[in-house]
Specification:
Order of helices and strands: EHEHHEHEHHEH
Largest sheet: 5 strands, parallel
Strand content: 5-15%
Structural class: alpha/beta
Distance between the termini: 8 Å
Number of helices: 7
Radius of gyration: 15 Å
Strand order of the largest sheet: 2-3-1-4-5
Shape: globular
Number of strands: 5
Length: about 170
């Protein structure tokens, strides 16, 4: 049975929406950021601070390439799409769903870009990260759902369920 892989910007709601989606359709739930943190035995930001961006991205790719699950909603880190190998593996027998959130809303939600564990180059802004990643999210997505307003979470989950059920 297919998995559902959630992709999108940091702060787009992948983890929150993923848990709710999994409950609604009777799937398990995995958050790759938690797996990365457990594998490194430290929080994401500490991995970035101690080992650098390249190491973090390698670790993220390794996690993405090695996941084996069934009937699972997988919330990926926002930078997972930067690894073609990981995304190709995750997309096998999965539906990739892009949580599309406008940049202004991402900026409102993500106020701690330097401490949240977001993989980006030194000197980059949230605008730079957004501009770099949106084309990748669009490239890998089978489906997308717009999630503009956190207060509208139930409606967004309903839209996700409807879209996912149409392809499972």
């Amino acid at each position: 049975m297919k998995n559902i892989v959630l992709i999108g910007m940091p702060g787009s709601g992948k983890s929150t929406l993923g848990v709710l989606l999994a409950k609604a359709i009777g799937y398990s739930f995995i958050d790759t950021d938690l797996i990365i943190g457990k594998k490194a035995n430290m929080p994401l930001q500490q991995i970035l601070d101690r080992n650098g961006l390249d190491y973090f991205l390698e670790l993220e790719q390794e996690v993405g390439e090695s996941l084996e699950c069934d009937r699972t909603v997988i919330a990926t880190g926002g930078s997972m799409v930067m690894s073609d190998k990981a995304m190709q593996h995750l997309a096998e027998d999965s539906v990739v769903l892009y949580i599309d959130v406008p940049l202004d809303e991402i900026k409102r939600r993500v106020t701690n870009i330097r401490t949240r564990g977001i993989a980006f180059n030194k000197g980059d802004t949230l605008d730079d990260v957004f501009d770099e990643r949106v084309p990748l999210y669009e490239k890998y997505a089978d489906l997308s759902v717009v999630f503009e307003n956190a207060a509208d979470i139930e409606n967004t989950v309903d839209k996700m369920v409807e879209k996912v059920k149409s392809v499972l």
